[in-house]
Design a protein that fits this description.
By secondary structure, the protein is mostly beta strands. It has one domain. Helices cover 13% and strands 53% of the residues. The protein is built from four helices and 14 strands. A 14-stranded antiparallel β-sheet has the order 8-7-6-5-4-3-2-1-14-13-12-11-10-9, with helices on both faces. The longest helix has 11 residues. The protein is globular and about 50 Å long.
């Protein structure tokens, strides 16, 4: 479920001083239901909070030990080229299951281009390990795993560029985002089950995939919120599909 907790966060709120959105997704492989993912974004003046959570269900909950994950990012809203850009101050990731829990927090120092990462992992006996790491140089980014998607849809979707590579805090590797054309567009349309729409392809390059370049096909609605997403070629499940089942935008 982690991969859906990451990739379903394509929000757009350009020019908004007060904005809230909520989206709920059902995640499944074929007939096998994996769980639900919920994405939220709130902007109030020059502050934002965004959160994505994923919870396993039914048989998937049994296999994963009732695994639950949450990403939460908060920080400032700044203006760049007339667009709202989310600038994170803190990112949190929490995971808990029957047998263990994990927690990671990233604190951003944009002035000095450093992010401090603190990890905590505890087993079922509450024995915990702690680790602190400084991320700087190429490991630092002014975007985190959630804000990058908002900022991409604000800027990339309106630009003439066809693809962009992103380095973000909270992700293990760089990702490439592409506006598909030709054979890639046809493949995206076939996987999403449509012949038109606002489509992005995200090449994730994660160990989740059985091949070196696993792909995520994303269909955006008129509010630039993910309507449907298909993760192709995962190791355990093959193709995984997420469908929007509930949405609120204020």
């Amino acid at each position: 479920m982690r991969i859906f907790a990451i990739v379903l966060m394509f929000f757009w709120a350009a020019g908004a001083q007060a904005f809230e959105s909520y989206a709920k997704y059902n995640v499944k492989y074929s007939w096998f239901e994996l769980g639900d993912a919920i994405a939220k974004l709130s902007i109030d003046g020059d502050r934002y909070v965004t959160e994505v959570s994923a919870k396993s269900k039914k048989m998937a909950a049994t296999f994963s030990g009732n695994r639950q994950e949450t990403y939460r990012s908060e920080g400032r809203v700044i203006k760049e080229n007339g667009q709202n850009v989310l600038l994170p101050e803190k990112l949190e990731w929490r995971m808990k299951s029957t047998n263990k829990s994990r927690y990671i927090i990233w604190i951003f120092d944009h002035e000095n281009e450093i992010a401090t990462m603190v990890k905590e992992e505890c087993d079922s006996k509450k024995k915990c390990n702690h680790e602190t790491t400084m991320l700087e140089g190429e490991k630092y980014s002014r975007n985190d795993i959630l804000t990058i998607y908002h900022n991409i849809t604000n800027n990339f979707m309106k630009s003439p560029e066809k693809n962009i590579e992103v380095n973000v805090v909270g992700s293990r590797k760089r990702a490439r985002v592409e506006k598909p054309e030709g054979k890639l567009l046809k493949a995206a349309q076939e996987n999403l089950g449509l012949t038109s729409g606002n489509i992005l392809v995200v090449h994730l390059n994660q160990e989740l995939f059985s091949s070196a370049d696993g792909a995520l096909f994303v269909l955006l609605d008129d509010d630039n919120i993910v309507k449907k997403a298909v993760i192709v070629d995962t190791v355990l499940f093959g193709d995984v599909v997420g469908d929007l089942v509930e949405k609120k935008v204020n």
